[in-house]
Task: inverse folding
DNA sequence: AAGGCAGCCTGTAAGC
DNA sequence: TGCTTACAGGCTGCCT
């Protein structure tokens, strides 16, 4: 749910709100999701906030990092004043300017870990290329595909160790816009199809970042809702933009929408 | 080795 | 009407 565009949006907004501030307290936290050692290093200054794949990384000035993953239902809120405790609160960080950074999670799948730079490096090294970076070239995409000839294309797109940041919704949307059936094996792809797919990955993610993500179910970024949900073609739809009936199947354990007419 | 899938969790929607 | 079941989904870890 929060995929690359949503996480990118959250990170940009968090950076503008909390960078250079001090965390002075941690309260009301759920120790099953939040690393309790964070309390031991307070107060600590926030040097920066950045994203890698779907992870949010808060860089501290003591050489450590807060590594956060929202999974499906996690979100952050920042309160300059008028903070009030709401359901699903996982952690409440008090900052030195009197503001509050609150982290919530309905399904409690996420986590906030305290890691050293070495530990961070180990985690991040398992992630694949950033699809919006200049490292993600058509040549690189071809190399990845070549290694996974037997894989189903949708599973490939969602494999974080190959390309970092694409989840169920954007995989579905990219495949529709590329005219490719999500069940197809990579070995069957022609080079024009690969090029089209490559271009759509960049285009869809870039546009979704500009729209501040998609608000589906309970995703909200720090300042409100996204706008890309209005551009979705087949995800959660009954009919595709050309008026064909959309089919829903289970692929790799995930609900997968596609148009059998438009996608071959 | 690598692919497949249960489990984690809880709210919502569908089904009986 | 009210209970039960299915589903949503990213990722880890276990199993084959």
Result:
């Amino acid at each position: 749910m929060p995929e690359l565009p949503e996480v990118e949006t959250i990170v940009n907004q968090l950076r503008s709100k909390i960078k250079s501030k001090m965390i002075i307290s941690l309260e009301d936290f759920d120790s099953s999701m939040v690393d309790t050692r964070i309390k031991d290093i307070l107060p600590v200054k926030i040097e920066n906030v950045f994203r890698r794949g779907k992870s949010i990384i808060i860089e501290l000035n003591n050489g450590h990092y807060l590594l956060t993953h929202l999974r499906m239902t996690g979100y952050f809120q920042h309160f300059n004043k008028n903070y009030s405790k709401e359901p699903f609160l996982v952690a409440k960080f008090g900052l030195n300017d009197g503001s509050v950074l609150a982290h919530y999670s309905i399904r409690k799948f996420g986590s906030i870990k305290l890691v050293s730079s070495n530990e961070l490096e180990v985690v991040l090294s398992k992630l694949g290329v950033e699809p919006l970076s200049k490292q993600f070239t058509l040549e690189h995409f071809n190399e990845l595909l070549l290694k996974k000839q037997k894989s189903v294309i949708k599973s490939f797109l969602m494999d974080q160790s190959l390309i970092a940041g694409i989840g169920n919704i954007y995989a579905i949307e990219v495949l529709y816009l590329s005219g490719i059936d999500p069940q197809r094996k990579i070995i069957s792809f022609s080079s024009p199809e690969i090029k089209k797919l490559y271009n759509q990955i960049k285009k869809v993610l870039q546009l979704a970042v500009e729209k501040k993500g998609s608000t589906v179910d309970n995703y909200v970024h720090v300042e409100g809702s996204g706008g890309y949900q209005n551009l979705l073609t087949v995800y959660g739809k009954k009919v595709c933009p050309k008026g064909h009936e959309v089919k829903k199947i289970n692929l790799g354990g995930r609900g997968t929408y596609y148009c059998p007419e438009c996608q071959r």
About this structure: Strands of chain A lie at 22-27, 44-52, 55-60, 64-69, 74-79, 89-95, 100-105, 111-116, 247-251, 254-258.
